[in-house]
Amino acid sequence: MNIIAPSILSGDFADLGNDIRDVLSKGAEWIHFDVMDGHFVPNISFGIPVLASLSKSIDAFYDVHLMIDDPLTYAKDFAKAGADMITFHVEAPVDTKATIDEIRSLGCKVGISVKPGTPASALSEYINDVDMVLVMTVEPGFGGQKFMKDMCPKIREIREMRPDLEYVEVDGGIAPDTAKFVAEAGANVFVAGSSVFKAEDREKAISEMKNA
Q: What is the pLDDT of residues 53-72, one digit of tens each?
């Protein structure tokens, strides 16, 4: 099953609740929640109070991507706020195994992410302990960047490392015309920001990505 997870980073913050309800009604399965701290990546987005407000009023699977220096410290608060999946970066300066164990203990699914410059081999020690690997197909930190097709071999390598991995997610420049490349490489969760939220026909954009 292919899962579309629109990133609210591209939503209308003045009407975010209705924006989320709309993409869910148009076929999206997850909501991708990008958290940036201005340190791990050069941008600041939103955090725990926003997630708590959304999860109280909108029933959805909240796919929380922590692009922060200290995911171990903040995992509990994000879980309490309504996260269903918490993904953090293998490059973060924390104890990776302890962070995986903490997220699991909180009742959330666990994801681990790699930046474009990080090889798949960096995940070898942890890949059997997670539910998802998120492969960044742009440099993390800002939306609207150009898709890096040269990440497809990494996606394929991750699938080969663990064929039974429940989810392989891709994030960055994903649209109907690029989703086919990552799907062929083995991805089954597609984070799409502007290609969904800014589309004239959101239902068509989601459907085309699913069919890619």
A: 999 999 999 999 999 999 99
